[in-house]
Design brief:
globular, alpha+beta
Protein backbone atom coordinates (compact mmCIF):
# COMPACT_ATOMS: atom_id res chain seq x y z
CA UNK A 1 0.00 0.00 0.00
CA UNK A 2 1.53 3.29 -1.15
CA UNK A 3 -1.11 5.96 -0.51
CA UNK A 4 -4.58 6.47 0.89
CA UNK A 5 -7.79 8.35 0.24
CA UNK A 6 -11.48 8.41 1.05
CA UNK A 7 -14.59 7.21 -0.75
CA UNK A 8 -18.30 6.95 -0.03
CA UNK A 9 -21.21 4.70 -0.94
CA UNK A 10 -23.84 6.09 -3.31
CA UNK A 11 -25.83 2.89 -3.92
CA UNK A 12 -26.95 -0.16 -1.96
CA UNK A 13 -25.30 -2.26 -4.70
CA UNK A 14 -21.84 -1.19 -3.55
CA UNK A 15 -21.00 1.73 -5.85
CA UNK A 16 -18.40 4.08 -4.38
CA UNK A 17 -17.40 7.59 -5.43
CA UNK A 18 -13.88 8.96 -4.95
CA UNK A 19 -11.34 11.14 -6.77
CA UNK A 20 -9.50 9.97 -9.87
CA UNK A 21 -6.21 11.07 -8.31
CA UNK A 22 -6.83 8.74 -5.36
CA UNK A 23 -6.82 5.67 -7.65
CA UNK A 24 -4.44 6.97 -10.32
CA UNK A 25 -1.45 4.65 -10.81
CA UNK A 26 -2.82 1.96 -8.48
CA UNK A 27 -2.42 -1.69 -9.44
CA UNK A 28 -5.37 -2.32 -7.13
CA UNK A 29 -7.52 -0.34 -4.73
CA UNK A 30 -8.74 -1.85 -1.48
CA UNK A 31 -11.34 -0.42 0.85
CA UNK A 32 -11.39 -0.96 4.58
CA UNK A 33 -14.92 -1.69 5.80
CA UNK A 34 -15.94 -3.33 9.08
CA UNK A 35 -12.24 -3.99 9.76
CA UNK A 36 -11.90 -5.97 6.53
CA UNK A 37 -9.87 -5.17 3.39
CA UNK A 38 -11.93 -5.68 0.23
CA UNK A 39 -10.77 -5.41 -3.39
CA UNK A 40 -12.62 -2.88 -5.54
CA UNK A 41 -13.31 -2.71 -9.26
CA UNK A 42 -12.91 0.58 -11.10
CA UNK A 43 -15.99 1.15 -13.27
CA UNK A 44 -15.45 4.68 -14.61
CA UNK A 45 -13.15 7.69 -14.28
CA UNK A 46 -13.49 11.37 -15.14
CA UNK A 47 -9.95 12.72 -15.31
CA UNK A 48 -11.06 16.28 -16.11
CA UNK A 49 -13.29 16.63 -13.05
CA UNK A 50 -11.17 14.27 -10.91
CA UNK A 51 -13.88 11.70 -10.16
CA UNK A 52 -14.00 7.91 -10.09
CA UNK A 53 -16.67 5.26 -9.55
CA UNK A 54 -15.64 2.00 -7.89
CA UNK A 55 -17.64 -1.15 -7.13
CA UNK A 56 -17.47 -3.73 -4.35
CA UNK A 57 -19.58 -6.83 -3.87
CA UNK A 58 -21.05 -5.92 -0.50
CA UNK A 59 -24.27 -4.32 0.68
CA UNK A 60 -23.36 -1.24 2.73
CA UNK A 61 -25.17 -0.44 5.97
CA UNK A 62 -25.76 3.16 4.88
CA UNK A 63 -25.71 5.04 1.56
CA UNK A 64 -25.43 8.77 0.86
CA UNK A 65 -28.00 10.70 -1.14
CA UNK A 66 -26.59 13.32 -3.53
CA UNK A 67 -28.04 16.83 -3.51
CA UNK A 68 -29.98 17.93 -6.58
CA UNK A 69 -29.03 21.56 -5.88
CA UNK A 70 -25.58 23.10 -5.96
CA UNK A 71 -24.26 24.94 -2.92
CA UNK A 72 -24.85 28.63 -2.28
CA UNK A 73 -22.41 31.15 -0.87
CA UNK A 74 -22.50 31.30 2.94
CA UNK A 75 -25.19 28.67 3.36
CA UNK A 76 -27.33 29.12 6.46
CA UNK A 77 -26.05 25.83 7.85
CA UNK A 78 -22.51 24.57 8.19
CA UNK A 79 -21.30 21.88 5.82
CA UNK A 80 -19.54 18.76 7.06
CA UNK A 81 -16.44 17.11 5.60
CA UNK A 82 -15.97 13.42 6.44
CA UNK A 83 -12.95 11.28 5.69
CA UNK A 84 -9.56 10.01 6.71
CA UNK A 85 -7.11 12.95 6.74
CA UNK A 86 -3.45 11.95 6.96
CA UNK A 87 -4.40 8.31 6.48
CA UNK A 88 -3.31 5.95 9.24
CA UNK A 89 -0.58 8.30 10.46
CA UNK A 90 -3.00 9.68 13.05
CA UNK A 91 -5.55 6.87 13.50
CA UNK A 92 -7.88 4.65 11.50
CA UNK A 93 -10.95 6.38 12.96
CA UNK A 94 -13.10 8.46 10.64
CA UNK A 95 -12.90 12.20 11.21
CA UNK A 96 -15.29 15.08 10.52
CA UNK A 97 -14.95 18.86 10.38
CA UNK A 98 -17.40 21.64 9.60
CA UNK A 99 -17.31 25.03 7.91
CA UNK A 100 -19.06 27.27 5.40
CA UNK A 101 -19.11 27.74 1.64
CA UNK A 102 -16.76 30.63 0.93
CA UNK A 103 -16.71 30.77 -2.89
CA UNK A 104 -18.65 29.23 -5.78
CA UNK A 105 -15.61 28.55 -7.97
CA UNK A 106 -12.30 26.77 -7.63
CA UNK A 107 -8.81 27.73 -8.74
CA UNK A 108 -8.75 29.55 -12.08
CA UNK A 109 -12.50 30.24 -12.00
CA UNK A 110 -13.30 26.54 -12.19
CA UNK A 111 -17.08 26.53 -11.71
CA UNK A 112 -17.28 22.77 -11.40
CA UNK A 113 -15.83 23.29 -7.92
CA UNK A 114 -16.57 25.39 -4.84
CA UNK A 115 -14.43 26.61 -1.96
CA UNK A 116 -14.97 25.89 1.73
CA UNK A 117 -13.18 26.78 4.95
CA UNK A 118 -13.95 23.35 6.43
CA UNK A 119 -10.65 21.61 7.12
CA UNK A 120 -9.27 19.38 4.36
CA UNK A 121 -5.98 17.52 4.61
CA UNK A 122 -4.07 14.92 2.65
CA UNK A 123 -6.17 11.73 2.76
CA UNK A 124 -9.53 13.57 2.75
CA UNK A 125 -9.54 13.41 -1.05
CA UNK A 126 -12.59 11.66 -2.46
CA UNK A 127 -14.61 12.03 0.73
CA UNK A 128 -18.11 13.49 1.01
CA UNK A 129 -18.94 17.09 1.82
CA UNK A 130 -22.49 17.04 3.14
CA UNK A 131 -25.24 19.23 4.51
CA UNK A 132 -27.16 18.76 7.77
CA UNK A 133 -29.76 16.68 5.91
CA UNK A 134 -27.11 14.10 5.03
CA UNK A 135 -27.03 15.00 1.34
CA UNK A 136 -23.67 15.02 -0.43
CA UNK A 137 -23.18 18.54 -1.77
CA UNK A 138 -19.63 17.98 -2.97
CA UNK A 139 -16.62 15.69 -3.20
CA UNK A 140 -13.47 16.80 -1.37
CA UNK A 141 -10.71 17.28 -3.91
CA UNK A 142 -7.85 19.60 -2.93
CA UNK A 143 -6.45 22.47 -0.93
CA UNK A 144 -3.92 25.22 -1.54
CA UNK A 145 -0.82 24.36 0.44
CA UNK A 146 1.31 27.43 1.04
CA UNK A 147 2.75 29.19 4.05
CA UNK A 148 0.26 31.65 5.50
CA UNK A 149 -2.68 30.27 3.47
CA UNK A 150 -5.63 28.79 5.37
CA UNK A 151 -9.19 27.87 4.44
CA UNK A 152 -8.59 27.46 0.69
CA UNK A 153 -10.14 24.01 0.35
CA UNK A 154 -12.15 22.78 -2.61
CA UNK A 155 -14.96 20.38 -3.44
CA UNK A 156 -16.47 19.14 -6.71
CA UNK A 157 -20.10 20.26 -7.01
CA UNK A 158 -22.93 17.77 -6.63
CA UNK A 159 -24.28 18.60 -10.10
CA UNK A 160 -21.00 17.42 -11.66
CA UNK A 161 -21.16 14.21 -9.63
CA UNK A 162 -24.78 13.60 -10.64
CA UNK A 163 -23.95 13.99 -14.36
CA UNK A 164 -21.04 11.54 -14.01
CA UNK A 165 -23.15 9.02 -12.07
CA UNK A 166 -26.08 9.26 -14.50
CA UNK A 167 -23.77 8.81 -17.48
CA UNK A 168 -22.62 5.53 -15.93
CA UNK A 169 -26.14 4.30 -15.10
CA UNK A 170 -25.76 4.68 -11.33
CA UNK A 171 -29.18 5.14 -9.75
CA UNK A 172 -28.78 7.65 -6.92
CA UNK A 173 -31.03 7.89 -3.88
CA UNK A 174 -33.65 10.66 -3.71
CA UNK A 175 -32.45 13.81 -1.96
CA UNK A 176 -33.20 14.03 1.78
CA UNK A 177 -35.46 16.94 2.68
CA UNK A 178 -35.39 16.68 6.47
CA UNK A 179 -32.52 17.63 8.77
CA UNK A 180 -30.79 14.78 10.61
CA UNK A 181 -29.89 14.90 14.27
CA UNK A 182 -26.29 14.34 15.35
CA UNK A 183 -26.80 10.64 16.05
CA UNK A 184 -28.25 10.09 12.57
CA UNK A 185 -25.44 12.03 10.91
CA UNK A 186 -22.86 10.15 12.96
CA UNK A 187 -24.32 6.79 11.91
CA UNK A 188 -24.46 7.84 8.24
CA UNK A 189 -20.91 9.18 8.17
CA UNK A 190 -19.50 6.15 9.99
CA UNK A 191 -21.20 3.53 7.82
CA UNK A 192 -21.25 5.16 4.37
CA UNK A 193 -17.68 6.57 4.25
CA UNK A 194 -14.76 4.27 3.50
CA UNK A 195 -10.98 4.26 3.72
CA UNK A 196 -9.21 3.50 0.43
CA UNK A 197 -5.74 2.00 0.08
CA UNK A 198 -3.86 2.41 -3.21
CA UNK A 199 -1.51 -0.49 -3.90
CA UNK A 200 1.40 0.03 -6.30
CA UNK A 201 4.41 -1.81 -7.58
CA UNK A 202 7.73 -0.43 -6.38
CA UNK A 203 8.53 0.63 -9.95
CA UNK A 204 5.29 2.61 -10.32
CA UNK A 205 5.74 4.23 -6.91
CA UNK A 206 9.24 5.43 -7.83
CA UNK A 207 7.95 6.80 -11.14
CA UNK A 208 5.14 8.76 -9.49
CA UNK A 209 7.36 10.13 -6.76
CA UNK A 210 9.94 11.22 -9.35
CA UNK A 211 7.52 12.72 -11.86
CA UNK A 212 4.82 14.18 -9.64
CA UNK A 213 6.42 16.28 -6.95
CA UNK A 214 3.13 18.17 -6.64
CA UNK A 215 0.92 15.09 -6.77
CA UNK A 216 -2.38 15.27 -4.86
CA UNK A 217 -1.92 11.66 -3.76
CA UNK A 218 -1.59 11.07 -0.01
CA UNK A 219 1.54 8.93 -0.03
CA UNK A 220 2.36 7.16 3.20
CA UNK A 221 5.01 8.92 5.26
CA UNK A 222 7.72 6.27 4.71
CA UNK A 223 7.76 7.26 1.03
Amino acid sequence: AASSGTGFFVSSSGHIVSNFHVIDGCSKVKLVYNDKEIDTETLAVDKINDLAILKVNIKPKKVYAVSTEDVKLLEDEDVIVAGYPLGKNISEAIKASSGTITALAGVGDNYSEFQTDAALNSGNSGGPILDKKGNVIGVAVSKIQAEGVEGFNFGIKSSVLRIFANANNIKLLPQNNRSMNKDQLRELITNATVYLDCWMTGKKLKEMLAENQNSKKAFYSQF
